[in-house]
Amino acid sequence: MAVEIPKFTRIEGRLNKITLSGTTKVYWQSFIYPATYQFKIGQRDLVFSTGTSDRDSAPFLAEGDQVAVAVLDGASDNNDPRMVYGLYSLEDECGYVAHYRWMNVKSKNAATRIAPNSEFKYIGAVSALLGVSFAIDYALARPLLWPEAAWPIASVAAVWLLCTTLLLIKRWRWKVFHRPTRRQRIVEEIYRCLDLGSPHCPDKKVQSV
Predict the structure, then answer these.
(1) What is the DSSP letter of 32?
(2) Most CB atoms within 10 A, among 6, 90, 138, 202?
(3) What are the TM regions of this chain, as residue ranges (predicted)?
């Protein structure tokens, strides 16, 4: 039985009563600072939770911007602002798809935490972090005799191999074998709703936020 994927509605219009709230809290998994936009399009209250690697980065949305947004079909609970999964701005002709907001969220309707085609960036970050650990372990292991000296070094190598393998399996399963996970299929629906093309080869400029 096929897994049912949520459908998205496209809403177009100009941003009205926009506010931006940030925080000094950082998602240590990816060193991302959360930034939340709240605004209206027509009579609809919307919220777009994003992330930035620079706490002092300039906002990419402004009052009066002409945009299209992707939101889940149906009304929100308790008349809360509807959550925006992705946005296309006609001002800079760029799409913005939310990924980092899902870092600490468990939901059947969540998108991927890692943006498409960014796996190697994370592999590089993991490699750098484990490289430091490897250097520390090597320094501590030098006075030890073999095979005791091999254990701390081998443990770091095993963690690196595990993390890299998991990231590449997810990438290959989606891009090469066309067997996306539920979250990856949700990302595909967001791109389709905003006419951005394929997540792996978008037709327009796209930023992960």
Answers:
(1) B
(2) 202
(3) 122-143, 149-169
